[in-house]
Amino acid sequence: MTSERVAATSDAQFFFDLNKSPLFIKNPQNLINVAGQKQLNNLDNVSLLDIFLSRGNIIEPHYHQNATELIYCISGSVTVSILNPLSKQIMNFTLTPGQIVNIPQGWWHYIVTLQDHTHLLAIFDAPNPEVILGSDILKFTPASIIAQTYGVDENLWKQAVTPIKPSTFIGSRNSSRTFNHTFHPYQLSSGTHIFPPHPYPW
Q1: pTM above 0.90, yes or no
Q2: CA separation for the pair 12, 93 (Å, rounded)
Q3: Based on CB atoms within 10 Å of each CB, which residue in 109, 132, 191, 197 is the most buried?
Q4: What is the rounded average pLDDT of the residues 59-66?
Q5: Strands (DSSP E) along the chain, which ranges?
Q6: What is the Cα–Cα distance from 190 to 112, expressed in whole angstroms?
C-alpha cells in the first residue's frame, strides 16, 4: 500500500520516536536505531538508520540488494569505503559533519569510525532495506565450498572463521555486544532477510 493510501486510512501513523526503535545495540556508545514502514506505516520508498559509534568501531562489510544508501555525518568522523564493482577498486571517503556519501544499490561497503561520539544517518530509497552481511557470508558458506572454489585448506578455513559471530553489524574495538531481541520484524519468504531475522536483532 502506498503512503498516500495509508494516509487516507484511520490507522495512518504520522509520528514515531526513533529513540524507542533499537535495531542493534553493541553497548551504550555503539548502537543503531531504525525507522521504516514497519515503524511508521505511511512511509513509502524511504527509511533510515540512526547510528551512534565510538572510535575504532566498524560497521561490518555488507551490501543492500534493494536500496541505495545515503550516509550523512551529523557529528564525529568516519571513513566510508566502497568497492567499485566496475573498477574493482576500493574508494575511501572520510566524512565530517555536514558531509554525505552515496552508495549505489548492491555495492559492497563498510564504515570505520575515526572519532568518539560519532553520529550518522543512513537514508534508504526503500521502505525496509534488505542487507547481506559479510559475517553471515563467512559464517554460513560451507567450508567445503570455500575449499573447493578457492583452493583453501578446509580445516584452516574452519579455524579462521570460528571467532566470527553471525550478524556482527558493529565490530572491532572490544567486540563484546548485546542484542535487543524485541525488534526483528523483517523477514521475507524464500530465505531473504531484511536486516536479519530472529535470533538476530533486526
Answers
A1: no
A2: 39
A3: 109
A4: 97
A5: 22-27, 30-35, 47-53, 58-63, 69-75, 78-84, 89-95, 100-103, 109-113, 118-124, 132-133, 170-171
A6: 32
Domain ranges of the chain: 3-191
Q: What is the CATH number of domain 3-191?
A: 2.60.120.10
| H helix intervals, 1-126 | 3-7
- Partners of 168 in the beta sheet? none
- The predicted model gives 124-133 an average pLDDT of 93
pLDDT above 70 (res 160): yes
How many other CB atoms sit within 10 Å of the CB of residue 3? 17
> Cα–Cα distance between 87 and 117 in angstroms, integer?
34
- CB count, 10 Å around CB of 159? 11
- Residue 35 contacts residue 42 (beta carbons within 8 Å): no
Span 27-52, average pLDDT: 94
The pLDDT assigned to 129 comes to 83
- The pLDDT of residue 6: 56
All residues at 6 or more sequence positions from 163 whose CB lies less than 8 Å from its CB, including other chains: none
